[in-house]
Design a protein that fits this description.
Elements: H1 5-27, H2 30-36, H3 41-68, H4 77-107, H5 110-146
């Protein structure tokens, strides 16, 4: 059972994302947060992006395990397109969390501001991890579909007509 290198590297990155997301959820402790600021859409957005990130990472790690059973010759084109799209969504979501962390850390007292500063920093690391996943699979698409020397281009686009 050989695992393609892209899947192995991205599984490691996703384990790191899972750990960082759990730490973000620990920092957004409801009892602590509600004592200083009211529950508003910003906290809810952090919970939503964290939940979606955990779901995405866990499901794709299971998917990678199932794909690795097929062997090293498994085409990863559909997986790569999906990962590029979902990594872009993860980048956008965690960029919003960076903004929320920075905004709340500037407008609240010291203890809460410090926690939300850390949330912003962890969200920045998550953005970097999602950029890594995006880069790995975008390069996979470029290498397998665009720069592959054995691709027959335009063979079916202009069929030979004989009279």
């Amino acid at each position: 059972m050989a695992i393609p290198n892209q899947l192995l590297i991205c599984s490691g990155i996703k384990v790191l994302i899972i750990i960082l997301t759990i730490v973000v959820l620990i920092l957004v402790d409801p009892a602590y947060v509600t004592a200083y600021i009211s529950i508003n859409y910003e906290i809810v957005l952090i919970y939503i992006f964290s939940a979606l990130t955990l779901l995405y990472c866990i499901v794709t790690i299971i998917l990678y395990f199932l794909l690795s059973k097929r062997g090293n010759e498994t085409p990863l084109t559909n997986t790569a397109f999906t990962e590029v799209i979902l990594a872009t969504a993860g980048i956008m979501g965690w960029l919003i969390v960076i903004g929320i962390g920075g905004n709340i850390s500037q407008r609240t007292i010291l203890e809460t501001g410090e926690k939300f500063g850390w949330i912003g920093a962890l969200a920045g690391i998550n953005v970097g991890c999602f950029l890594g996943i995006f880069a790995i699979f975008a390069l996979n698409i470029v290498n397998e579909k665009i720069l592959a020397p054995n691709r027959r281009r335009y063979e079916k686009a202009y069929p030979q007509y004989s009279r």
